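Predict structure. Chain length: 90.
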Amino acid sequence: MTLWRFDGKEHVSQGTRETDADGRIGDLGGGTISAGSYRLSFEVGAYYKRKALTSFLDRVTLDFEVRDSSRNYHIPLLMSPFSCASYRGS
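Prediction complete.
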């Protein structure tokens, strides 16, 4: 998964992370994430290929806005080889 920050002109990579055994990334931005517009890109096709499975989806991209940098943000991606869903968790 890659985190991107929109700087007003383009998306700038903030780093790439892999999920742990529970499918989570505990420290997404390497510290505090400031208010602004962001993008998460999940390489779903590569994930399923490593598991020797085929997937309808290749990449899932979520655009979101951080309004309050003092809050924790939990953005789950629920996926199968044929679909995905996301929501803002608590």
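Summary: The radius of gyration is 14 Å.
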